[in-house]
Amino acid sequence: MDFVVEQRSLILEGFWTTLRLTALSGVLSLVIGTVLAVMRVGPIPPLRWVGAVYVTLLRSTPLTLIFVFSTFGLPRLDIRLSFFAFAVVALTAYTSAFVCEAVRSGINSVAPGEIEASRAVGLAFGQTLREVVLPQAFRAVIPPLNNVFIALTKNTSIAVAFSVAEATSILRRLQNQDASATFPLLLTTAAGYLVITLALSFAFSRLERRVAVTR
Amino acid sequence: MSVALYDAPGPRARRRVLIGSVFGALLVAALVALVIQRLEETGQFRSAFWEPFTRSGVQRILLRGLGATLRASAVALVLAIALGLVLAAGRLSERWVVRQASGAVVEFFRALPLVLLIFFAFLGLPELGIEIGAFGALVIGLTLYNGSVLAEIFRAGINAVPRGQREAAYSLGLRKGAVTRLILVPQAVRIMLPTIISQLVVLLKDSALGFIVAYPELLRSGRRIYTNIGNVIPTAIVIAAIYIVINLALSALATFLESRQRGVRRRRAVADVPVEIGVGRLP
Asked: Which of A43, A155, A160 sits opposite B6 (nearest CB)?
């Protein structure tokens, strides 16, 4: 345990990187996922197909393979970024497919009467979506999005094999230095992840209560 | 799509959709062209990168990797189902302590990253003098995580059997064990099957984490190929195609079972209505 206390700044730094990975990929995949969801419910066939193909392919591929693609594959295309940025690319590409499906199910959960009414008062597709559907869809989408972001937080640990110094890599590095501290290190890291996911769930349930409407 | 977000298009809207389609298609084509150009410029299509996949040696590495992936997934699936059954039985127990304890176990394993669970086995168990190797660590990690998820699926499945079934069985004088075995489980299995198969897709994908602990599964075998030949992108594309084909087949099976399930339920719901009225349970 002494070793863990001794190395606490390094461990905290690891979790800080985990948090940055999660936050950055989370925001990006929220934006891209929503755009994809709008493409998938929209009236333009080619965009609908692109959305469907993207989601199908990305959801059927292991995230570790997407990491290989971005971290080892992109440099072969002369795209050179930091390891952190490669990890963000991989996590965003994967997570946005799941965000898309969550948002799409939210859009489908909006009562048909709402949509018919907004069309009846003459709103166009974009207006219907912007003013009527998406605000309500986001309300319905908060619990599934919570699950997606918790999965994202856990998935950042895959970056351990791709040279990003996040919490799990720090665990690996410190365990290499002092094998006798294996269990304290494992348990500390586990506790760290639990704190993040619990805080995330708490924030989401607060958000859900705030935007909840009595229907 | 059940909800029409836009009207049946009139002549003007049809023209706009057409223009949008053309622009959309052009945009997509431009993006694809850009990607292909980039691949071409950096020589990803050169035959030295693709020809190896026609060689039997390389094919054998991939096949052996696929075999290892399937083996780890199959072992983990069987163990996870066993663990899931135990935990689900615990969560449905009549004893408060058992219920709480199983609930805590399920929540704990679901809340941790799978990589960390694998490291618990990979780094932690040797410290206790138990050598399990990469295969064992991967299987243990997959089992703990998927077992917990399956426990929740099983519990939801049992709870999804209409309450009247259980009540009728009890009123016929069956004991709890018999009610579970003869009435609840057979019906629950049918309800759960699509979800279980979807979970199998998750398990199969997660088995690629064997990459991290150097278990020679499909992705790790791919690494052996691309570190030798330097064809990262072609290898990744080939491996992705293998995963996608398997997972889409499994997903299609799940969808088929689900649609068949829905048909059964609809017929049953129709048959149920007169009974409900006869019992006078309608409000």
From this structure: A43
